[in-house]
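Revision sheet: structure tokens.
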Amino acid sequence: MIMLFHEIYSTYFQTVGKILTEAVEHPLTTGEISSIIQNHAFEESALNIPESLGMARWQLLKEDGTTILRKKPTMPLTILQKRWINAIALDPRIRLFTDRPVVFSDVEPLFLPEDIYVFDKYSDGDPYENEEYIRNFRLILDAIRHQYPIQISIRNRHGERVTTRTIPEYLEYSEKDDKFRLIGTGSKLGNTINLGRITSCEKCGNQQGKIGKRNLPQPRKVIFELVDDRNALERVLLHFAHFEKQVGKIDDRKYQVTLHYDKEDETEILIRVLSFGPMIRVVKPRAFINLIKGRLSDQKSCGL
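Predicted:
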């Protein structure tokens, strides 16, 4: 199944299909075939696909650039693919994108939601089946696609309603938190807003263009070493799945991780690093090490 859905395998099939589709309509030149391969496949494909399509091997493309096919090729879904799609349609997050997910009545789902158990995951994920949440999500997604400002309202920690305007740039999903976050420009609440906190979301009239100047997030990084006990490496990669990072192997059991993050995520990063206890040792920067010392000192003073 991994091979069936892997992009490398589907890319070759799709590229050959595009070449043959064009060849049904008109004879193809060598340059046209190369152009299709360059736009849809990998560079090394130009070395084997044209030759393989010829009469010496696959016998699909003649020397004059025409094909033996009379109709355009199609790629019908296999039973396994249909079962996979049916399984995805059961995910409550599919409702964020459509009210009518594709479902094939002639096959059973490949798996059910209760068949999947995710460990080390928060249980207070976003309310994906809430109609207001769905409406807000779809409006934000449309604003991202067409780059127009929106007005959003949230409830702050004091229960007060706060309203701001922003231009959404992209949505970010955290597997660990099971939450979506809106990354936008021009909001007085910052560049990152949890969708679950948004109580209302509206388009700002017909106004186009950006609001003010973008407050660029301050990029930061922390470098730490970890000992791969009790699947520590796997758990670290899961905890920090939505952050840019590089991982290098020091020896058989020790790794070095460089984690990139925005300043506003620093507290979250600090808490997650501390949750791994002695399996992680921060080596740089000194400022982050001081944050760890300060937090541990505060916990000690509280008797924790």
